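User: Okay, second chain of the day. Same drill as before: sequence in, structure tokens out.
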Amino acid sequence: MKELFMRGGKLSHSKILIILSWVVATIWGSIKLYKGILTDDFVSYYLGAFVLNVIGASATTAYRDKPIDKPFVSTRNRDQE
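Assistant: Same drill. Structure tokens below.
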């Protein structure tokens, strides 16, 4: 359970924010569903927010981990040319 809130041995504020926002949005959506006022717009915003979050997190991780400090090393074998 602790891994849900930790990243690299430290408390991850972004993970906590994502989990808490999901809880709030789910409770809000459940109340709208119970009252019978749930709309297609709400469902699309609800799903879109979390899908965009996953895409954004993956993109920023890929950008952060890109090897900009390392010089370009060719993997081509020059003896075979």
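DSSP finds two helices and two strands in the chain.

User: Thanks, on to the next one.
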